[in-house]
Amino acid sequence: MTLVAEAFVDWGWIGDNLDEIWDKVAEHLVLTGIALGVGLAISLALAALALRFRRSYTPITWMTGTLYSIPSLALFAFLVPITGFTTLTAEIGLVSYTLLILIRNIVAGIDGVPPDIKEAAVGMGYGRLRLFFEIELPLALPVIVAGMRIAAVTTIGLVTVTALIGKGGLGFFILRGLQRFFSTVGSTEILIGTLLSVVLAVIVDVGLLLLERALTPWARRKVA
Amino acid sequence: MVSPVSDAMIRLEAVTKQYPGTMTPAVDELSLEIPEGEIAVLVGPSGCGKTTTLKMINRLIEPTSGEIVVAGERVTEMDQSELRRGIGYVIQQIGLFPHRTIAENIATVPKLLGWDKARTNERIDELIDVVQLEPEMRDRYPAELSGGQRQRVGVARALAADPPVMLMDEPFGAVDPIVRSALQDQFLDLQHRLNKTIVLVTHDIDEAIKLGDRVAILNVGGILEQYAPPSDMLREPANAFVADFLGSDRGLKRLGLLPIRNANLEMGPVVAPTAHPQDAHRVMEQYGVDWFAVAEGKRLLGWAPGTALETAPDVRSIPLQPYRTRIDVGSTLKEALDAVVSSRAPMTAVFDGDDYLGMLSADRISREIVQ
Ligand SMILES: Nc1ncnc2c1ncn2[C@@H]1O[C@H](COP(=O)(O)OP(=O)(O)OP(=O)(O)O)[C@@H](O)[C@H]1O
Ligand SMILES: [Mg+2]
């Protein structure tokens, strides 16, 4: 066991490159955060459109579904001639992949708000906007956050692919490691990149779960 | 603009609702007037248009034709949200906001109306008290309450901004019969103090009779079969449908509405302690019983079997047994009848507190029904 580990892991390299590792973790988080934030904003707008005009829901899911099904490598390859080796290129791709999941969850969450609660609100004089922001959105939160968690974990994985266009966060180590695969440093880099990426995904997932708990105290306190 | 108005708080004029894609109207040319401070109950079989009628009053549903006037204004000419904020609304499924505490739920309309914090808080405390919830429930979420408690919160929420008009769709529907009966009593109690104009929907005819100053019986297709105070309706149902809907125990139900206070009490086989044994024999014969009771002024001293007279020299010296079949004058004739049939005595003694007033027999009660 130790032998194997020593053959693949260069502990010294890790110690010497802590700063760079930390930088890439930060980059990874920033790329993910922007993708989720922008994705959520676009999804909310599109979901609101779909909820207001039911007929638009099918084309919206069809479009975002198509985006979702494009292989990520192909998408970046297609974008580079247009937007170059930039963060914008990375984010266009990353955001595209969050839309389907987020829109579906927002619409499902809001559709799942019991009609009697909406009727009570309207019957007491709530307008459309107030109903959406004060009743529907908060009640849909658990379903929306569930979508955010899936989108977050997916995005954290996808960020590594953007290493190919010069971004990539922890994907940078994986890509460089592949280029010098047969050295201990190479395998160490691949291992570090992969491992930290997984750890990030788990931390963000648990973080969102805790956020949901904090935002929806009413959903847990039940009598029986 | 001034609308032609009667003094009714709510007036429906030939209101019809036909849902798109349906063959027959859900509500058909319905006209009703609800005087200020009264409870009108809409009752009828499932699907007869009760909820539809109610929702047309606060414009959750727009009528196909006809006119609805609330407090002298045509609802179609009022701003929707403003109209609704001025009408207390309790929906069929309660519809509390699960993400808001009890206090926040109650504060819904005050918040929409822009009340300040202090006034809202004061009102919340007041209402929690009014609907008899515990103050510590203030900060709980709806999921942490029982069905009956939730229903009370629903009523409190509707009352929050003290609206003159309340619409209540089966407000006590989701609880068991015992809790329901308690809630109904509380509700009546409350109404005696608040004097709201209320339209209440139910499919329980007993609830309608108990709560309504007037009852509207609707038939499938939204047809009004009869609109009358419950005791009038029970005495004289307009047609076979109404009679059938009121049930075969119509007479008994009517007894439940008649207070003993308004009935003619009987003397009964009762004598004074100073009476001669002969008098006792006479009243026993008159009422066809083999016992007699002794009363002194407003005190009922007790009763004794007729055989006791054989050995005693006078009425005063006869040992009496306490008269146990008794009822308060504040009760209904139905309760009096129940007292009679569930005891062995053929008559119940009627009291006002400790004061003896007279007797009621099953015979006497049945004569009260037809009056
Ligand atoms: N949105 C709608 N579209 C079409 N038909 C409707 C709609 N809402 C109600 N109806 C129909 O109108 C009729 C009256 O419905 P309503 O809900 O007023 O009945 P209800 O008397 O309240 O019944 P329940 O006692 O079951 O609550 C029913 O036949 C119902 O199917
Ligand atoms: Mg109904």
Structure description:
- The complex is a heterodimer of chains A (224) and B (371).
- Chain A is mostly helical and 224 residues long.
- Chain A has a single domain (20-219), classed as MetI-like fold (Orthogonal Bundle), CATH 1.10.3720.10.
- Chain A has eleven helices and no strands.
- In chain A, helix 4 crosses helix 6 (87-111) and helix 5 (72-83) crosses helix 6 (87-111).
- The longest helix of chain A is centred in the N-terminal third of the chain and has 35 residues, at 18-52.
- Chain A is elongated, with a radius of gyration of 21 Å.
- The termini of chain A are far apart.
- The model of chain A has no long low-confidence stretch (mean pLDDT 90).
- Chain B has helices at residues 50-57, 80-85, 102-106, 108-112, 117-130, 147-159, 177-194, 205-211, 230-235, 240-246, 250-255, 277-287, 308-311, 333-341, 362-369; strands at residues 8-17, 27-35, 39-43, 65-70, 73-74, 87-90, 165-169, 197-202, 214-219, 223-228, 270-271, 291-296, 299-305, 326-328, 347-352, 355-361.
- Chain B is elongated, with a radius of gyration of 26 Å.
- In chain B, 34% of the residues lie in helices and 24% in strands.
- In chain B, strand 9 and strand 10 form a beta hairpin.
- Chain B contains 15 helices and 16 strands.
- Residues 1-5 of chain B have low confidence and may be disordered.
- With 371 residues, chain B is an alpha/beta fold.
- Chain B folds into two domains: 10-255, Rossmann fold, CATH 3.40.50; 260-369, CBS-domain, CATH 3.10.580.10.
- In chain B, the strands form four sheets. Chain B has a six-stranded mixed sheet, sandwiched between helices.
- Chains A and B meet through helix 7, helix 8 and helix 11 of A and helix 2 and helix 4 of B.
- The complex binds adenosine-5'-triphosphate (ATP) and magnesium ion (MG).
